[in-house]
Design a protein that fits this description.
Strand content of chain B: 15-25%
Distance between the termini of chain A: 39 Å
Number of domains of chain A: 1
Largest sheet of chain B: 3 strands, antiparallel
Largest interface: A-C, 56 and 52 residues
Number of strands of chain B: 11
CATH architecture of chain A: Orthogonal Bundle
CATH topology of chain A: Cytochrome Bc1 Complex, Chain D, domain 2
CATH superfamily of the largest domain in chain B: Rieske [2Fe-2S] iron-sulphur domain
Oligomer: heterotrimer
Number of domains of chain B: 2
Distance between the termini of chain B: 72 Å
Helix content of chain B: 10-25%
Strand order of the largest sheet of chain A: 1-2
Structural class of chain A: alpha+beta
Strand content of chain A: 5-15%
CATH superfamily of chain A: Cytochrome c-like domain
Largest sheet of chain A: 2 strands, antiparallel
Order of helices and strands of chain A: HHEHEHHHEEHEEHH
Chains: A alpha+beta (about 250), B alpha+beta (about 210), C mainly alpha (about 500)
CATH class of chain A: Mainly Alpha
Radius of gyration of chain B: 29 Å
Shape of chain B: elongated
C-alpha cells in the first residue's frame, strides 16, 4: 500500500469521526449588528451608564477614556458621570460589594472585558450579549421574578425592562424520544409593552453591545490601522530580502 | 572570506563587500528599510517608558474650595502626584515680604518658574495677593520643605526671621513667597503651578488663568 | 579628517587590541564567516533561526511587561485581582503596552509552532543521529524549558484559565505515589492556587527558567557548530573536503545562510504581525476567551482545556484510563518480546524480564489483566492503594514520558540512512501516521471529553508510542535507497 493510500484512509477515518464529536448542545446566538461609529458608541455609553453601572463596574475604563468615542470632557461630566468626581476616575459601580452579595448572592461581575470573555465557538461575545439582553422573560419562580432563555437561572433581574417591556416564554412539553418529558422552548412574546417598540429596543441593545465591544478593547480600530502600515513595510522588506538572497545565491554552483 | 574558498569556486565573486553594484544597492536598501523597521518596532517600547494614561489623568486640574481656609493657614492638595501648597497670608506676612530683598537670591523672581500672570514680591495673581499657591518641592533635589511660620528669635531660625519654609534635606530656606535666601543649596525660587480662580473661593490648579 | 585608509588601519589596530585579550575574530570565523553549512538547506532549515528570533522577541517584550505587571492576587478597590487588572492596565494605560503584550502572547504560540516544525525537520532528515546526539538532547532540554516557561507564564494574567489550568496541572503531581499529595501542596505553597503560587510562578517565569534556557540555547549552538549541520540529504559534508580542508559541499554561513535567514525572519514577522494586529486572540487558541474573566477559586469554567500547544499530551493523559492499561501492557510486552528475540545478551534478557514483571505488576497488581480473583483481592487492593499505581498515575507518566521519548530517538533509529529522501515507504508511512496521530491528539485535547474522542485518542496514543517503541525494528526492516556521495543540489 502506498503512503498516499494510507494517508487517505486515515484522513477519511478522521473526517468520519469529526461530526459525532462536533455536535454538542451549542447555544443558538443571534448575530449582533455591532457598529463602532461614534453615534452608536455614544448612545451605548449612555445606556451603559444609566442601566448597567448601577450594579456592574467597568473598572478598566476611566471616564475620560470616553473622549475616544467623540465626547468632550464637559459632555462626559454633565451627562455620564454619576460615580466619580474626577473625569480621570475609574468607572466604578456605586453599589457596595457586600450589598451586592447580599442582594444577588454574588457580586455582579466587572464588565470591562465581558465582550471578549463571552466569545465561544457559538459566536462572538457581542452575539452572546445581544442575545442575552433580548431574552429575559417573566418567571415568578425566580427570586428576582425574571429568567433568561440563554442563561437559565440568571441571578440578574431584567435591567432594561422598562424599555423592552415584559416578555413571556412559551414552552411546550415534548417527548425526547427516550420516554422523557422535556420542556422545549418555543419562543418569546411581549405581554406588556415597554417604552420602545421591538425594533427600537433591538437597535438600542445593539448600541449598548457595540459600546461593550469597544470598551473591551478601546484601541482595536487603531490596532488594525497600524497593522496595515506594518504589513506594507514588511511586504516591501520581504521583497527586498528575497531579491538580496537571490543576488547572493546566483553565484553558488 | 577565505582565499581558498574563492579558488575553489574558480574566482567567483563571493564577498559580502563585493563590487557588484546592483547587489550593493540591494544590500543598502534592505539594510536601510530593515533599520527603519527596527526603529518603528522600538516605538512602543520607548513609549512605554512615558507616563501612562492613568498617570496623565491623575495630572488633570484639581479644584480647591478656599472658603474654609483662614488667614495664616496652609492647605496641601495633590496635583500630578506632587504637593501643592495654598497659604492664606496675613497682612503682617505680606508686609514682611517687602523687607527681604537684599537677603534673597532673586527677589523679583526673574529666574523662577512661574506663570506670566503671577507678579510682585507676593508672587500671586493681581488682586489675590492674600493667597500663595506653589508646588511644595524644593528646587534643590526635590524634598518637600517644612513650615516655619513663627517669626523672630522664637522660631529658631534667627533674629530677623519673618516666617517661611525650611527644607529638611539640605537646609534651604525660603520666605513666605517661596523665594530662596542667599547662600542656600537651592538655586531658584519655588515653582508656581498654573492656576486660576473660578470664583472668590474656588481655585483650579493645573489650568492657566485666561486673559492675564 | 581621516582618510578611508587611515580609518581602516585604526579599525584593524582596535581589532588587534581586542583579539589579544578576547578571541573575537576567532569566534566570528568559527561560528559565522567560516562556519561551513551545507548548500542544500531547504525552508525546513529556517526554523532554527526563527526560534532564536522569537526567543529574542519574548525576552525583550517580557522585560518591558515586567515593568508594569504586578504579581498580586489580592483584590483592588473595584474587586478585581491586582494581577488581572495590571494586565488590562498594560493594555489600556501604558503607551504602546497593548502591542508589547500582544507580541508576548502571540510569541508564546509562535514559539511552539516554530519549535514543533524545527523538531519535525529533525525527524524528516535524521538530524538527531550520530554525531548529533547532544545537539538533539540540548534541544529536548530547551523544549522542556519552553513548556515550563509557557506553563508558569500562563498563570500570570490570573484569568479563569490561568488559575484552573495551574490547578489541574499541579494536581497531576498528586498522582505520584506516597509523596504526591504533599508535593502538589509544596509546589503551590498553599492548598489552592493562590498568591503564593502566583509569586513563585512569576519568579520562575521571569528569571529562573529564562537563565537556564539561554544557557541551553548556547550549548545547543556550540554542539551544532562542533559537529556541523545536517542537511536534507543526510550526507556528511565533512567527509569530502578540498585541499584546504573546506567541505566541498559547504558554504560559509555568512553571507549565504544569513541572507536566507533574514528572508525567513521577515516572512515570520509578517505572520506574526497578522496575528498581533488582526487576530490577537487567535480564534480563542492563543488567548483563551475564558481568560478574560478574573480567576475565581469557587467557580470552574464549564469547559477547560490547556493552550493548544499542550493539547496532544493532555489528550494522552485523558486517554489513559484503567480499561486502556491492558493495551499499554501489550505494547510493552511486544517491545520486550522483540528485544528478547533480537538480543542474546544475558543482562539485557534479565532486564527484559524485570520490565515485563514490573510493568505487569504496576498496571494490574497480581491480577489477570485487571480482573481481580477472590484470594488475591485484599493483597491487591493493599498494593494498589499503598503505591497508588492507578490509571491517574500512569496518565501522568504517559504525559511526561511521551514528551521525553523524543530524547531517545538517536538510539532508537537503526536505519542505514538518515534522511527521509532515502528511506523506504515503510518509514514514510509510519512518520505520516505519527504526524496525523499527533494532530488528532492535539485536536481532541481542545475538545470536551466524549466517548468517540476518547477511543480515537487511545488509538492515537498507542500509535504515538509505537512510533518510538518499535522504531529499532521497523527502521531496520525499511527498504532504503542508496545515498549519494555528494549533496544533490539544484
Amino acid at each position: 500500500m502506498s503512503m498516499k493510500k494510507i494517508l487517505a484512509a486515515f484522513g477519511l477515518g478522521l473526517i468520519l469521526a469529526m461530526p459525532v464529536q462536533a455536535s454538542g448542545p451549542a447555544a443558538v446566538l443571534d448575530r449582533a449588528p455591532v457598529s463602532l461609529d461614534a453615534a452608536s458608541l455614544q448612545a451605548g455609553a449612555k445606556l451603559f451608564v444609566n442601566y448597567c453601572l448601577g450594579c456592574h463596574g467597568a473598572s478598566a475604563l476611566r471616564y475620560n477614556h470616553l473622549t475616544q468615542i467623540g465626547l468632550t470632557e464637559q459632555q462626559i461630566k454633565d451627562n455620564l458621570m454619576f460615580t466619580a468626581d474626577k473625569v480621570g476616575g475609574q468607572m466604578l459601580t456605586a453599589m457596595r460589594m457586600e450589598d451586592a452579595k447580599r442582594w444577588f448572592g454574588a457580586a455582579p461581575p466587572d464588565l470591562s472585558l465581558i465582550a471578549r470573555a463571552k466569545a465561544s465557538a457559538s459566536g462572538s461575545g457581542a452575539d452572546w450579549l445581544y442575545t442575552y439582553l433580548r431574552q429575559f422573560y417573566r418567571d415568578d419562580s425566580r427570586p428576582t421574578g425574571w429568567n433568561n432563555v440563554l442563561f437559565p437561572g440568571v441571578g440578574m433581574p431584567h435591567a432594561l425592562w422598562e424599555l423592552q417591556g415584559e416578555q413571556q416564554a412559551r414552552f411546550v412539553t415534548r417527548d425526547d424520544g427516550q420516554g422523557n418529558q422535556v420542556q422545549h422552548f418555543e419562543g418569546l412574546e411581549i405581554v406588556r409593552p415597554g417604552k420602545l417598540t421591538k425594533e427600537e429596543y433591538d437597535a438600542e441593545v445593539a448600541n449598548l453591545v457595540s459600546f461593550m465591544v469597544w470598551m473591551a478593547e478601546p484601541g482595536q480600530e487603531s490596532r488594525r490601522a497600524i497593522g496595515w502600515v506594518v504589513l506594507a513595510v514588511l511586504g516591501v522588506l520581504a521583497l527586498l530580502s528575497w531579491l538580496l538572497k537571490r543576488a547572493y545565491w546566483k553565484d553558488v554552483h | 572570506m577565505s582565499d581558498h574558498k574563492q579558488e575553489a569556486l574558480a574566482g567567483e565573486s563571493f564577498c559580502a563587500c563585493s563590487a557588484d553594484p546592483s547587489r550593493r544597492a540591494l544590500l543598502a536598501a534592505t539594510a536601510g528599510l530593515g533599520a527603519a523597521a527596527g526603529i518603528g518596532a522600538a516605538v512602543p517600547f520607548v513609549a512605554s517608558f512615558t507616563p501612562s494614561d492613568r498617570a496623565r489623568a491623575a495630572g488633570a486640574p484639581v479644584e480647591v474650595d478656599l472658603s474654609g481656609l483662614r488667614p495664616g493657614e496652609k492647605l496641601v492638595v495633590e496635583w500630578q502626584g506632587k504637593p501643592v501648597w495654598i497659604l492664606r497670608r496675613t497682612p503682617e506676612m505680606l508686609a514682611g515680604l517687602k523687607t527681604l530683598d537684599d537677603k534673597l537670591v532673586d527677589p523679583g523672581s526673574s529666574a523662577a518658574e512661574q506663570p506670566a500672570y503671577v507678579s510682585g514680591e507676593a508672587r500671586s495673581i493681581a488682586g489675590k495677593e492674600e493667597f500663595f499657591v506653589c508646588v511644595g518641592i524644593c528646587t534643590h533635589l526635590g524634598c518637600s520643605p517644612s513650615d516655619k511660620f513663627a517669626t523672630g528669635a522664637d522660631s529658631g531660625m534667627g533674629e530677623g526671621w519673618k516666617g517661611g519654609f525650611l527644607c529638611p534635606c539640605h537646609g534651604s530656606m525660603f520666605d513666605l513667597a517661596g523665594r530662596v535666601f542667599k547662600s542656600m543649596p537651592a538655586p531658584t525660587n519655588l515653582v508656581i503651578p498654573p492656576h486660576t480662580y473660578l470664583s472668590d473661593t474656588r481655585l483650579l490648579i493645573g489650568q492657566d488663568s485666561k486673559g492675564a | 579628517m581621516l582618510t578611508a585608509k587611515e580609518l581602516e588601519d585604526k579599525g584593524r589596530q582596535a581589532l588587534a587590541w581586542v583579539d589579544e585579550r578576547f578571541p573575537l575574530s576567532v569566534l566570528y570565523k568559527t561560528h559565522v564567516s567560516e562556519y561551513y553549512a551545507p548548500k542544500n538547506f531547504n525552508f525546513w532549515y529556517l526554523f532554527g533561526s526563527m526560534a532564536l528570533l522569537v526567543l529574542v522577541i519574548q525576552i525583550v517584550t517580557g522585560i518591558f511587561l515586567v515593568m508594569h505587571y504586578k504579581p498580586d492576587a489580592s483584590l483592588n478597590a473595584a474587586g478585581v485581582p491586582v494581577a488581572f487588572a495590571s494586565v488590562e492596565y498594560i493594555m489600556r494605560e501604558v503607551p504602546g503596552g497593548r502591542f508589547i503584550r500582544y507580541m508576548h502572547s502571540t510569541g508564546a504560540s509562535m514559539f511552539f509552532i516554530v519549535v514543533y516544525l524545527h523538531m519535525f525537520r529533525g525527524l524528516l532528515y535524521g538530524s538527531y543521529r550520530k554525531p548529533r546526539e547532544l545537539v538533539w538532547l540540548f534541544g529536548m532540554a530547551i523544549f522542556l524549558c519552553l513548556m515550563g516557561e509557557a506553563f508558569f507564564g500562563y498563570l500570570l494574567p490570573w484569568g479563569q484559565m490561568s488559575g484552573w489550568g495551574a490547578q489541574v496541572i499541579v494536581n497531576l503531581f498528586a498522582a505520584i505515589p506516597v509523596i504526591g499529595p504533599d508535593l502538589s501542596v509544596f509546589i503551590r505553597g498553599d492548598f489552592v492556587v493562590s498568591d503564593a503560587t502566583l509569586n513563585r510562578f512569576f519568579a520562575f517565569h521571569v528569571i529562573a527558567i529564562p537563565l537556564v534556557l539561554l544557557g541551553l540555547v548556547t550549548a545547543h549552538l556550540i554542539a551544532l557548530h562542533e559537529v556541523g549541520s545536517n542537511n536534507p540529504d543526510g550526507v556528511e559534508i565533512k567527509e569530502r573536503k578540498d585541499e584546504q580542508g573546506i567541505p566541498l559541499d559547504g558554504i560559509p554561513f555568512h553571507p549565504y545562510h544569513v541572507v536566507k535567514d533574514v528572508l525567513g525572519a521577515v516572512v515570520l514577522l509578517i505572520v506574526f504581525s497578522i496575528i498581533v494586529f488582526f487576530m490577537p486572540e487567535g480564534g480563542g487558541y492563543f488567548l483563551e476567551y475564558n481568560n478574560f474573566m478574573p480567576y475565581d477559586q469557587l467557580k470552574t469554567p464549564p469547559h477547560i482545556a490547556p493552550v493548544w500547544y499542550f493539547t496532544p499530551y493532555y489528550s494522552m493523559l485523558r486517554a489513559t484510563t484503567s480499561s486502556f492499561l491492558p493495551f499499554l501492557w501489550l505494547l510493552v510486552a511486544l517491545i520486550v518480546g522483540l528485544t528478547w528475540r533480537g538480543c542474546s545478551c544475558v543482562w539485557i534478557r534479565r532486564a527484559c524480564l524485570l520490565v515485563v514483571a514490573g510493568a505487569y505488576w504496576g498496571f494490574f497488581g497480581l491480577t489477570l489483566f485487571g480482573f481481580t480473583k477472590p484470594p488475591f483481592d485484599l493483597a491487591i487492593a493493599g498494593i494498589h492503594l499503598g503505591l497508588g499505581l492507578d490509571a491517574k498515575f500512569w496518565g501522568v507518566v504517559m504525559m511526561g514520558g511521551s514528551v521525553m521519548l523524543f530524547a531517545l530517538l538517536p538510539w532508537l533509529d537503526r536505519s542505514p540512512v538518515r534522511s527521509i529522501r532515502y528511506k523506504g515507504v515503510l518509514y514514510k508511512a509510519i512518520l505520516a501516521v505519527f504526524v496525523i496521530c499527533f494532530l488528532i491528539l492535539g485536536y481532541y485535547g481542545t475538545q470536551p471529553p466524549s466517548p468517540v474522542g476518547n477511543v480515537v485518542s487511545q488509538i492515537c496514543t498507542i500509535l504515538y508510542l509505537a512510533y518510538f517503541g518499535l522504531m529499532p525494528w521497523y527502521s531496520k526492516l525499511d527498504k532504503c535507497k542508496p545515498v549519494p556521495e555528494r549533496l544533490t543540489w539544484k
